[in-house]
Amino acid sequence: MANSSLSATALTRHCLDRITEVNPALRAVIAVSPDALGQAAESDAAWQAGRPRLLEGIPVLVKDNVQSEGLPATAGSSALLAARPPDAFIIERLRAAGAVILAKANLSEWANFRSTRSTSGWSTLGGQTANPYALDRNPSGSSSGSAAGLSAGFAPLAIGTETDGSIVSPSSACGVVGVKPTHGLVSRGGIVPLSLAQDTAGPMATCVADAAALLSVIAAADPQDSAGDHPGPVDYAALLDPAALDGARIGIWRAASAAADAATGALLDVAVERLRKLGATVVDPVELPDIDKVTEPEFEALNYEFKHGINAYLKYLAEFADGSGPELPGTLAELIEFNQRNAPVVLARFGQEIFLAAEATSGDLGDPVYAEFRGAARRLARTAVETPTLEHRLDAIFALTANPAWLTDYVLGDHPVFGISRPGAVSGWPTVSLPFGYVYGLPVGVSFIGPRWSEPRLLALAYAFEQATRSRRTPELRSSLTAHLRD
Fold it and tell me: Where are the alpha helices (DSSP H) in 193-294?
């Protein structure tokens, strides 16, 4: 664009054509922005005037639980089709940086917080998102369409959201970079909530530098929703350093992937050897004490937080109803009733057991029972990450992000073997996942986890590892892994 060999309009049209061609098989996009080409034309004018902004004319996929003016933010559910809320804070930031809001990405309906037997990447509105490396494999979730569409070339950048694993897990499964920021670094304003104690939006890209540039735009203090110790504007891309691992202290969390098969587990050994060759001091292994005890209190707390948050959000959303779809539910109870009325479509694949469990709580964040659950989860998670970090003076904890993609299965549901999201999700620490290895053609990511506000250091470490390994392969949209093995 800087040398006028590519226009924003041409790039946006290419992305739209790619969506038209591939989305019927991938189901990564729910809706295309009707004014995408108009946005691109405005960016071309900015380039011609010599006043380009940081993301001028760059198309971005946005997960469809993030508000974007002119389109509903559905969380994958037809229950929210009748609302047209204004831009979320991070969308305002993207527009101000010149980005083209290209399309709304499919997701695991309600951010995968509806059923205990859910299938990641499926929503009532979007259908089943496929994995671009093998279409019968699952993309993981809940930022399924953001990861799959990005990987398949629908856009150079994407926005995901995470409560526990919803950015890093699909990033690993779909072979892209995902950043789960420090809780409080990125505004939650205008995003369908699951848990205000853990929710965050974050950047997704095909390389660390692009993810850093996107984070530089969205990681701004929101007067309505910011951590009190927010670091303020940071140019993360300017801090990337290909030599960052030289002298860094990296702890290897082997127990995280102890359940991996031999081929997947072997990738960790290869990655650790690369860290050593790049000059890192490797502490192998490190333990995260009692991290397995976090799951129960976390999930109990999430039930309270979801009821509290979704009731407040539905009340807020009512003022933006335009009558274009079914009447908006006003509470979680009404949302449950909506799903029951539309069960042949909405509940065709799996139920709403989590909704029912959340509705059975008080939804009161002042409830001492809730406070005990959230307090226990937070204490356990923070102790788990702080203990090895302080003891060994670590810059980061390192691990395989998750197992390779499983077959999409509507009978048994998801088949996760391992994942590393919980420590960062519950403690509020940031995590950066990037592509590293492949098992029978399916990608497996590695993650750097670090203390709050350590994104400059984590991104630099991830960038150094990425530049030395150059591991990412472009997906070929094979129909199945069987086809790959036969070839």
Answer: 208-218, 262-277
Give the model's pLDDT for residue 481. 87
Q: What's the confidence (pLDDT) of residue 487?
A: 54
**CA atoms of 435 and 171, how far apart (whole Å):** 8
Residue 459, burial from CB neighbour count under 10 angstroms (0-12, 13-18, 19+): buried
CATH fold of the domain at 8-291+373-486:
Amidase signature (AS) enzymes (3.90.1300)
Structure tokens at 341: 């009325």
Residues of the chain with pLDDT under 70: 483-487
SS3 487: coil
For β-strands 100-105 and 59-63, DSSP reports them as: parallel
pTM of the model: 0.98
**393 CB-near residues (< 8 Å, 6+ apart):** 249
Which amino acid is residue 93, in one-letter code? R
- In the DSSP assignment, the letter for residue 189 is T
Tokens of 264: 């997947």
Domain ranges for the chain, please list them. Answer: 8-291+373-486
Query: Is 104 strand, coil or helix?
Result: strand
Which tens digits make up the pLDDT trace of 249-274? 999 999 999 999 999 999 999 999 99
Contact 65, 310 (CB under 8 A): no
Q: Which residues are catalytic?
A: 63, 142, 166
CA distance 365 to 370: 6
Write the Ramachandran bin of 287: left for phi over 0, alpha for psi from -120 to 50, otherwise beta: beta
Helix (H) or strand (E) holding 158: strand 157-162
The 29-32 sheet, strands edge to edge: 29-32, 100-105, 59-63, 157-162, 200-205, 177-180, 431-439, 442-449, 396-400, 249-252, 281-283
Are the C-beta atoms of residues 285 and 254 closer than 8 Å to each other? yes
Which residue shows structure tokens 């079914």? 326
- b/e 176-202 (16+ beta carbons within 10 angstroms → b): bbbbbbbbbbbbbbbbbbbbbbbbbbb
3-state secondary structure of 66: strand
For residue 388, what are its two tokens? 């090895």
CA distance 63 to 76: 10
Residue 325: per-residue pLDDT: 73
Q: Give the residue ranges of DSSP H helices in 219-251.
A: none
Reply yes or no: is the peptide bond before residue 454 cis, omega within 30 of 0: no
Q: In this structure, which amino acid lies at residue 174?
A: C
Cα 281 to its chain centre, rounded Å, is 30
Structure-token pair, residue 349: 């694949």
Q: Say how far apart CA 434 and CA 471 lie, in whole Å.
A: 9
